[in-house]
Design brief:
Length: about 375
């Protein structure tokens, strides 16, 4: 596809060269990550008495997550090495002497990085999310012996339309609630029409089904007991999986997280943390574009591959630091979620863009005067 956007043998050559380098860097990076993770968790696996098959499955399903995490750094190193080799072999000089400007490489790698960013987003939110959830399940159930479906949340309040629900205990994975009190308000939301209490509530497609419900009508001073009462409350308790302290919202796919944010927002819950996580998925995928700008900026500064790799990795760590600080600030409500999640991309990308523009502008002016 990139060759259609930028036709010619050079585009195909540059793309193939980069793909080969990315495969090499990805293989080395993944191997180092796996070895580090294996040595860190080996004692836990042995202590849990797990067989080789479970251990192997854990690392196989975790592999997509590892690739998603290290891909920005891998993309950066592959571009630095590629451009550095081309500069050292005087390929860049020959191309520029032949009339090919630095702007061609900037446009090529920006388009190339954008395509990779969309690929990274799709890969991480489909295969990566499944692998992360399965690895999380194996770690909690098989290693830590903690059953996810037994998790309980306490003292949950939310609003759904004219209903305000107070549940002392909520089982998100079982879609059940215990010790439930439901306040039903009138159309003006000022007067309580009915108060329903029940020991247990089960959520189904029709609403909330309360067992042995006691209904009180303050306006009529009446009380009634019903074996089963179904209230038209639309909120699905599974949305509280995301706010379970033991569950990471980042494990949810992008579209599922969007749906949960909308449902929780309608119920009056604070969704700043989840909204920041939603934006961070996009920003982290498009960090590949930021890494492309960094590599292009570095090659204009020096042709030394080793110096550029060292400085590039330093800028990558700086990006990660800005990214994590920004996400934390967004989750705490210090910054708007979108600005917080994209702060690392903006800071590092802007710095690299300024350097590229500093080189491109004089080159463009020189070409303009040369034509005159």
């Amino acid at each position: 596809m990139i060759s259609k956007l930028l036709p010619g043998k050079l585009a195909t050559y540059v793309m193939k060269q980069n793909l080969i380098l990315m495969c090499i860097c990805l293989g080395v990076g993944t191997g180092i990550y796996l070895l580090s993770d294996l040595f860190d968790r080996l004692d836990d696996f042995i202590g849990a008495g797990l067989g080789f098959g479970i251990i192997l499955k854990y690392f196989i399903v975790k592999l997509p997550l590892i690739i998603s995490q290290i891909l920005p750094a891998v993309f950066l190193i592959s571009l630095i090495v590629q451009l550095g080799v081309m500069a050292r072999n005087r390929e860049l000089l020959a191309l520029r002497t032949g009339g090919l400007s630095l702007g061609w490489f900037v446009r090529f790698f920006i388009i190339y990085a954008i395509l990779w960013s969309f690929g990274q987003l799709l890969f991480s939110q489909v295969i990566g999310v499944y692998g992360e959830q399965e690895a999380f399940r194996i770690w909690k159930e098989d290693v830590r012996k903690s059953q996810l479906d037994k998790r309980v949340l306490h003292n949950i309040w939310f609003r759904d339309g004219n209903f305000v629900v107070d549940a002392k205990e909520v089982m998100p994975f079982g879609n059940k609630a215990k010790d439930v009190t439901v306040y039903e308000f009138g159309e003006d939301s000022r007067l309580i029409k009915k108060v329903t209490t029940a020991k247990w509530a089960q959520v189904n497609k029709y609403g909330w089904q309360l067992e042995n419900a006691v209904q009180k009508s303050p306006d009529r001073f009446t009380t009634s007991v019903q074996p089963f009462v179904t209230l038209p409350i639309k909120l699905d308790l599974s949305v509280f999986k995301a706010v379970d302290p033991g569950a990471d919202p980042a494990q949810l796919p992008l579209w599922q997280l969007s749906r949960m944010i909308n449902q929780l927002e309608k119920s009056g819950s604070n969704v700043e943390k989840l909204r920041t996580s939603w934006h961070s998925k996009w920003s982290y995928a498009f960090s590949l574009l930021t890494m492309a700008l960094v590599s292009l900026a570095l090659v204009t500064w020096s042709e030394n591959i080793y110096a550029n790799i060292g400085l590039g990795l330093a800028l990558t760590f700086t990006y990660y630091a800005c990214f994590m600080i920004g996400v934390s600030a967004g989750q705490e409500g210090v910054l708007p979620p979108m600005l917080a999640a994209w702060s690392g991309n903006i800071a590092i990308g802007l710095l690299a863009s300024i350097r590229i523009a500093w080189v491109l502008v004089p080159e463009s002016l020189f070409g303009l005067f040369k034509k005159r």
